[in-house]
Amino acid sequence: AADCFQRGLLSGRHVLINAGPTREAIDPVRYISNHSSGKMGFALAEAAAEAGARVTLIAGPVNLPTPTRVQRVDVVSAQDMLEACQAALPADLFIASAAVADYRPDTCAEQKLKKTPGSDDGMTLRLIRNPDILATLATGAQRPRCCVGFAAETQDVLGYARDKLQRKNLDLIIANDVSQSGIGFNSDDNAVTLIDQQLTTTTLPQASKQKLARDIISRLAALLDQQDS
Ligand code: CTP
Ligand code: CA
């Protein structure tokens, strides 16, 4: 039955997953972040552990319990998340579900920023690019054999997703249309389309993130077995 799902499918594998948002400090009390809940990544970690994998979950600031038998490492910024992911290598499978902030303030002010007294002026923050965690791991010397990305898009979902699959050297990308309400970011349900290296697309219709996670993990276990043979 669905309950004794895939027991052992991932036994002997080390699965590395990152999840949630990152926070990029502006000053001691302020930051830039996004609305990622981390739910999809935590559901994937739970499903991978149920399938018998050793699971390392690198989590940005989220409000979620740690799944059973999952080793969780909490981080804050994109740079911390990159270092924690690298420290967890080697891994057989890397799933990058984190909503990594693309930019960070070029410096973090040491003291709380103050408005200029007597002025109604606006203010400008200078932002610089964060490292691309997924591309770094997927092109690195210790590349996990199977690297999987997510692509949250609001338009031309499959086009942008295919582009990321190729540009970041991935085995699979999971495309996510975040313009639809009720699914994706911060919701309990999701609907995704998988695109592999042959550009074959597989659509998994709207379901709970738990159900989707199990489906995705079964497919990734099959992909790893296929790479073995
Ligand atoms: N990603 C990452 N490090 C970043 C940015 C993104 O590891 N600095 C990963 C995400 O975890 C995801 C994939 O790359 O698995 C795609 O993220 P997305 O934000 O959709 O793509 P970007 O490459 O950042 O492009 P853009 O935001 O401009 O669409
Ligand atoms: Ca991005």
From TrEMBL:
Catalytic activity entry: N-[(R)-4-phosphopantothenoyl]-L-cysteine + H(+) = (R)-4'-phosphopantetheine + CO2; (R)-4'-phosphopantothenate + L-cysteine + CTP = N-[(R)-4-phosphopantothenoyl]-L-cysteine + CMP + diphosphate + H(+)
DNA repair in keyword set: no
Cofactors: FMN; Mg(2+)
Top-level lineage group: Bacteria
Residue ranges of domain DNA/pantothenate metabolism flavoprotein C-terminal in the record: 10-222
Free-text cofactor note: Binds 1 FMN per subunit.
Transmembrane segments: none
A GO CC annotation given for this chain: phosphopantothenoylcysteine decarboxylase complex
Binding site for CTP: 102, 112, 131-134, 150, 164, 168
Annotated metabolic or biological route of this protein: Cofactor biosynthesis; coenzyme A biosynthesis; CoA from (R)-pantothenate: step 2/5; Cofactor biosynthesis; coenzyme A biosynthesis; CoA from (R)-pantothenate: step 3/5
Its EC number(s): 4.1.1.36, 6.3.2.5
UniProt-annotated stretches for the region Phosphopantothenate--cysteine ligase: 15-229
GO biological process terms, semicolon-separated: coenzyme A biosynthetic process; pantothenate catabolic process
UniProt GO MF annotations: FMN binding; metal ion binding; phosphopantothenate--cysteine ligase activity; phosphopantothenoylcysteine decarboxylase activity
The keyword Metal-binding appears for this protein: yes
Keywords linked to the UniProt accession: Decarboxylase, Flavoprotein, FMN, Ligase, Lyase, Magnesium, Metal-binding, Multifunctional enzyme
Similarity comment: In the C-terminal section; belongs to the PPC synthetase family.
Protein function: Catalyzes two steps in the biosynthesis of coenzyme A. In the first step cysteine is conjugated to 4'-phosphopantothenate to form 4-phosphopantothenoylcysteine, in the latter compound is decarboxylated to form 4'-phosphopantotheine. Catalyzes two sequential steps in the biosynthesis of coenzyme A. In the first step cysteine is conjugated to 4'-phosphopantothenate to form 4-phosphopantothenoylcysteine. In the second step the latter compound is decarboxylated to form 4'-phosphopantotheine.
Listed name of the protein: Coenzyme A biosynthesis bifunctional protein CoaBC
Species of origin: Halopseudomonas oceani
Residues of the full protein shown: 177 to 405 of 406
